Amino acid sequence: MKTNPTGQPRAHSTPLAQRLRLPQLMNHRSHRWTREQIRAARAALLIPLLQKRGLQLIQREAGNFELSAFPGLIVKESYWRWPERDLAGNAIDFFVQVLNLTFHDAMRQIIGEPSPR
Fold this sequence. Notes:
DNA Primase, Chain A, 5-stranded antiparallel beta sheet
């Protein structure tokens, strides 16, 4: 065992999980979203994602939909707007601003797991 000048055991510079070759637990800092994944999530069609979450959609004119759970909120393709609250955005924005998810959780809901660093 290696010791420091005071005779105490010296700490390893390599993390224990790496020394034991254990898989690291997934956390928000151990993964990163690629630019392509973020672009794809922004452009994701909202209607199927919202239907998957069990939200009731009401079809309106010109390909617009309203959500019964959020009166006044209008969805079309990958964009949404909520004029009464002065909010609008893409699919990621919807999950973050309307459904109150973190960015990471929104990305997971939209496209799945991130790429490892």
